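Kindly inspect both lines:
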Amino acid sequence: MKLEERIVLFSKLGEYLLVNKNTEEYKEILFAAKAKNAWFTLDNIQNAIDNIIVNFLKENELRNFVSTYTDSYFEPIVAKKIGLIAAGNLPLVGFQDLLQIILSGNIVLYKASSQDEVLILYFLKILNSFNSEISNYIKIVDKLNNADAFIATGSGNSSRYFEYYFASKPNIIRKNRTSIAVLDGTENRIQLGNLGGDILNYFGLGCRNVSKLFVPKGYIFNTFFESIEFWNSIRMHSKYNNNYDYMKAIYLVNQVQHLDNGFLLLKEDENLTSPISVLFYEEYETLDLLNKKLAEMKDNLQVIVSENNAIQNKVNFGNSQTPRLNDYADSVDVISFLQEV
């Protein structure tokens, strides 16, 4: 398949998903994916698919993405086999890598997470129905012994294992990162409501979820809490609620100072990554000093969200979970990496 064929094929996938979301087959797939992972809700699965359709599979998005590289990046003389280990914390979290590897003209050896295999198999079924040649580019595997290079995402412990196991081959090993938000006190309720999505979408399980706020000294959280109140139904999810009850009990028993709005706990803490149902916060003196601090911790940050244009490398509230094709995880350019393999 030529690059043009691959672009058209993936754009047809997006069109198919958009048109067929109300069919019985589609609904059954979503229920099957939900059954595999207790953290997957139907709304979150649909949200993930919608983001993929809009930001990855629109024909203009695909063409704009490939236009930022020369043609040689997408027509290799010899296709390489790229082992891809997908995480299972969010629905279809490995799809961006899969898409980019195939666009580059290389072959994906895809090791799906047992907690998120239904959706990717459904996508492959659709692609194959349009053009059976796609089966030459995607292989679902249990072992990655024959790969020429590796892309893997995992926790701190698993990333150390990946680094050891794949050390002899070119690799991208993604470790734990998190996202933060910077407030300056001038935000309106709509903006803070959008921030609520950055924090609580997917129950805060993704590296693009905001796990910490940086706020000006003396910041009052009343308006923030009022603006995200519409998220209160999140406690209806048993696993999230169990985490909330557990963390609240820990803080109360140990007399840890915290704020509580009934479904989210706020705790002042210097750490970046907070437990599920907890949001850390830290006060800052000036934005200049904060920018310097954030620059020093850039290797631990995935996304910075803020409405203040003085904050470097930020996106606006509500956009942390909607990456485009060129928004590479850990800022590692996958297409350039594949070119060098």
Summary: The longest strand covers residues 210-216. The radius of gyration is 21 Å. The chain is about 40% helix and 15% strand. Residues 271 and 280 are 7 Å apart (CA to CA).
